Amino acid sequence: MSLFENIRDGKEPANIIYQDEFITAFDDKYPSAPVHILIIPNKMIKSLDNLTEEDEIYMGKILIGASKLAKMKNIHESGYRLITNCNKDGGQEIDYLHFHLVGGIPLGRMIGLSKESKKLFQKIKLSTKTHITHSESSSIR
To answer: What are the pLDDT digits (tens) for 27-51?
Structure first.
């Protein structure tokens, strides 16, 4: 069983803030902001890519739960972010669908790429721009 399944089932210590039939919410062990809560579906779903039509109840409960938790933590008016990462390039570290509810301070830019990723992105942008420019010019002829 994964860490999140153990937390959900009470077999691993965590500060569970909210739990019902569909979702479990608990404080992140390594918070990135004053409010940093993890929200998981009680059904093991590996990632967003593994969602099925039957999982829509869990997704709805996660979104409503995030809104309620933001109000409970008094960050609903100042603002917050609800984040999920999908697979390796998306930054998913644990193979269990989970959402980060983050707030309590100004959060800044939505995406902060590492220096390595910024360099890669610049190369991709340049290669795409060159490709588009070249293909546009050949279609003009």
So the answer is: 999 999 999 999 999 999 999 999 9
76 is catalytic: no
CA distances from 25 to 90, 123, 128 (A): 22, 40, 41
What are the angstrom distances between the C-alpha of 120 and each of 112, 116, 126?
14, 6, 10
Beta strands in the chain (DSSP E): 16-19, 23-27, 35-41, 80-83, 99-103
Question: On the CB side of 137, how many CA atoms lie within 13 Å of its CA?
Answer: 5
* Residue pointed to by tokens 């790429």: 113
Give the gyration radius of the chain's Cα atoms: 19
The pTM of the full predicted model, rounded to 2 decimals, is: 0.81
84-136 pLDDT tens trace? 999 998 899 999 999 999 999 998 877 676 677 777 878 887 877 665 555 55
Residue 8, amino acid:
R
Nearest to 69 by CA among 36, 41, 47: 36
Amino acid found at 91: G
> Which one of the listed residues 98, 100, 131, 134 is annotated catalytic?
98
